[in-house]
Design goal:
With about 160 residues, the protein is an alpha+beta fold. It contains 4 helices and 6 strands. It has one domain: Thiol Ester Dehydrase, Chain A (Roll), CATH 3.10.129. About 30% of the residues lie in helices and about 35% in strands. Strands 1-2-4-5-6-3 form a 6-stranded antiparallel β-sheet.
Length: about 160
């Protein structure tokens, strides 16, 4: 499992989200911290314990040969959203790692997309699996993709 990042996420978001360009900067910094996720160029609009909204612009870099957003870009967006909502909810002495992932592609994804995730804030410190669901919607608010992530969370172990 990864080390605990919940407190660090909250601290940086609170520091940057309220200043002009701060959400953009936070999104870029997250991309440097998690390089593969950074390739999306997604923008975090909302980050609260148990809630996350991430925006993805439709551009050539994330499209497939059908001129829609590529399936793996959608999966990456879903994983990013579920991870942010959950990790931002964990206390400083807990950590998590993705254990399983399921994606349903309901229709072609075109235009700007919003990925929204709500999850329960975990209580206690016992190691367990948590399923977190994310809906990705297009500009007409149609759900184009549903992602379900199984996260294994538990206490941080000493090195």
């Amino acid at each position: 499992m990864t080390r605990s990042i919940g407190p660090q996420l909250r601290r940086q978001w609170q520091r940057l989200a309220g200043i002009p360009g701060g959400k953009w900067l936070f999104s870029r910094l997250l991309g440097r911290f998690v390089p593969y996720t950074g390739t999306l160029g997604a923008h975090i609009d909302v980050l609260e314990p148990g809630h996350c909204v991430v925006r993805l612009r439709d551009r050539r870099k994330v499209r497939n040969h059908l001129h829609s957003v590529h399936a793996m870009a959608l999966a990456n967006l879903g994983e990013m959203s579920t991870g942010l909502a959950l990790m931002n909810s964990l206390p400083g002495n807990m950590r998590g790692i993705l254990k399983g992932f399921n994606v349903e592609y309901l229709k072609k994804a075109r235009g700007s997309l919003l990925a929204e995730c709500h999850c329960e804030i975990p209580d206690g410190h016992a190691e367990r699996e948590v399923e977190v669901r994310c809906e990705i919607r297009n500009t007409t608010r149609d759900i184009v993709t549903v992602a379900r992530a199984q996260w294994l969370i538990g206490p941080e172990k000493s090195a």
